[in-house]
């Protein structure tokens, strides 16, 4: 009887251990798949700002490149070099960092200091809601800022729409 109890405990322990290893493998596999997906998104996407709202609607802005880099942890960074809208006296840069993109390709999160406005020598940084999607070689996203400038509230919105032209490594 004692041998049967010890054998039962040993068998139960092996089953519990194998389930634990299996669960850890699934978590590691999902993280690996997310990281691989993010890696496939890396590159330059050429397109335009199809919707621009800054103190009213503005004309679309063409010839914009959005660069996507992989952080190696399942997140990506989206960057647009400084650009001007209309006759504005400064430039705007988009640096949305650590965006989680699941296998669906859809994302929606607030990014700290994602928009940089530079007027003269004064750089200002604003948090932004960044939402969009990757679909094949196509990237579409909207950056929304609700903030204050000189104590006056403002809303700024731009929508980028473009296609991948190269992979970056």
Structure description:
With 169 residues, this protein is α+β, with helices and mostly antiparallel strands. It has 1 helix and 9 strands. It has a single domain, classed as Lipocalin (Beta Barrel), CATH 2.40.128. The protein has an 8-stranded antiparallel beta barrel. The N and C termini lie far apart (64 Å). The relative contact order is 0.17.
Chain-wise SSE layout:
Layout: H1 2-41, E1 43-54, E2 57-58, E3 61-70, E4 75-83, E5 91-100, E6 106-119, E7 122-135, E8 138-149, E9 152-166
Antiparallel strand pairs: 1-2, 1-3, 1-9, 3-4, 4-5, 5-6, 6-7, 7-8, 8-9
The CATH class designation is Mainly Beta
What is the overall shape? globular
Strand content: over 45%
Order of helices and strands: HEEEEEEEEE
DSSP helix fraction: 10-25%
Radius of gyration: 23 Å
CATH architecture: Beta Barrel
Brief digest:
By secondary structure, this protein is an alpha+beta fold. It is 24% helix and 58% strand. The longest helix has 40 residues, at 2-41.
């Amino acid at each position: 009887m004692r041998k049967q109890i010890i054998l039962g405990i040993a068998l139960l322990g092996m089953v519990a251990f194998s389930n634990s290893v299996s669960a850890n493998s699934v978590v590691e596999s999902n993280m690996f798949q997310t990281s691989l997906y993010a890696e496939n998104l890396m590159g330059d996407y050429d397109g335009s700002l199809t919707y621009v709202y800054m103190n009213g609607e503005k004309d679309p802005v063409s010839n914009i490149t959005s660069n996507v880099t992989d952080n190696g942890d399942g997140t990506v960074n989206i960057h647009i070099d400084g650009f001007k809208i209309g006759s504005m006296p400064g430039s705007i840069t988009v640096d949305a960092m650590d965006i989680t993109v699941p296998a669906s390709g859809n994302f929606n999160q607030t990014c700290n200091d994602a928009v940089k406005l530079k007027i003269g020598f004064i750089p200002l940084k604003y948090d932004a809601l960044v939402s969009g999607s990757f679909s094949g070689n196509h990237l579409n996203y909207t950056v929304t800022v609700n903030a204050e400038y000189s104590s006056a509230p403002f809303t700024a919105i731009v929508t980028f729409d473009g296609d991948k032209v190269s992979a970056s490594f």
